[in-house]
Amino acid sequence: MECRTIEATPLRHFQFVIFVMGLFHLKMACVDAIWHIFIEPKAARDNITSLMHFVALNLIGHTGITLCLDAWWVEVQWQFTTYTSLEDFATMKPSQELLEEMSHSLAKNYARCQPTHAHDQQKENILLMHQYFLLYKELSWSINEGDIGHVETLFPSWIYLFRATGKHKYAKHMMKFLTDIHFVYPSKLQHAKGKFCTVDLVVEAQNLHTKERSNYTQKRVIEELPLIKVYRSCHSNMERNLSIPGPTTAHAEPNLTKTIKKMVGYCCDHRPNKFVAGRETAYVIPDMMDKGQDLVHLNVQDDEGEIIGEGEATSRKAAIEGEDIAVI
Prior knowledge:
Layout: H1 10-13, H2 23-38, H3 51-57, H4 60-79, H5 86-90, H6 96-109, H7 121-145, H8 148-164, H9 168-184, H10 187-191, H11 199-215, H12 218-224, H13 226-241, H14 257-270, H15 288-298, E1 300-301, E2 307-308, H16 310-327
Antiparallel strand pairs: 1-2
Helix pairs in contact: 2-7, 4-6, 4-7, 4-14, 7-8, 8-9, 8-15
């Protein structure tokens, strides 16, 4: 039993001296926030241009790529009437200056809402989808490239989205992290945030050291955990029963041509990026960025110090008072 006792000090726990955020888990939280915005409301799943319909064809990353391609095609049709497809436009070999000019138009007209007298609710939903998908894409790219400074610039936007979707603990710790980095930590520690190393290797090394400290040797871990052998035996039985040969692990290179073509065809049929005056939807996606900004500025906290929305705080307080009365 002595080898399994929980370590008594933070040093033996191998805890960080200061709080260090796990960016892989942050990405998972971002995807969960997108789910809360576009999929959790049942009415949001009914529209033909909803995320639920796109996810039925493929995943979020591919949906974002397809919507961007469709936006490019709508822009090409608006600026040039002689082309029949994006492939036809590509054969012209457009200059870098033209592509940059078109990209500015895309950012202005397809990634943010423009006030108009006539509304297209489906396109307005897609505009918000573009915004949040591009934020996720930018965050994912920055993490994969190790550009931690760029990751930090995206924190405010995701703090707003987390607050608006009820992920208050993530928002709270991200705000604390930014405050500590810029106003609490000494200058040398502030500039240390630019370092980056692969998350998986750090986590695995941490797990290894924890096991060595708790059980003294890796050999003893294997000896004392028969579940490892049972788990491996189950896999071996499945392989034998299903006659799975070893070469099945040699997969071909990923090819998304058919997938993207199918999804682009769906966009061509329903035109999510094209403005159609008066087009309605079963559910209007609220602007969670504005909602999150309002909640951050309200800065309401519950009895345990957790930051919550003003309406949620009122409901919690009322519920507690009602329980107190019932007990009395």
